[in-house]
Design brief:
The chain is α+β, with helices and mostly antiparallel strands. It has a domain of 98 residues. It is built from 1 helix and 11 strands. A hairpin with a 4-residue loop joins β6 and β7. The chain is globular. It starts with 8 loop residues before the first helix and ends in a 6-residue tail after the last strand.
Length: 141
Amino acid sequence: MTMKRIPSITGFFKLPACVLALLVMPPVLAYMLNPATGFTGVGHGPDWRLDIVFSKNAMTLKTDEGEVTHHYNKLGPIIRTSENATIYRMKSRDHFMDVVIVHTFCQDIKSGKAYTAKVSISVDGKTYSGCGTEVVPPYDD
């Protein structure tokens, strides 16, 4: 007795899955080859800018009142409280700084630009709030 083979529905999905994989892979591969090199945050009232450069283990906060730069060791001072937030805590002889990055949509109040995170900074008793995003270098084929 010969049995007829019934086409499987999973065979139907193989081609679209392959096409989808080809469309999705270049951006995913680009991100894997070019991971974030840092983080930048901005805010207003007063204006400020935060730059974190991962390769230099450095964090610089520039405000109208001046500039504070902290260097930290590779193992710290990152405290992960959840998948959605990262907390940096730095203490030096002259300054104490906490940076809280919550990975959620944020829109700059001055420019209207969309960012991927909300940022809150406390340095030497002053608080700054704003938005930020990871710095990812461009990917060249």
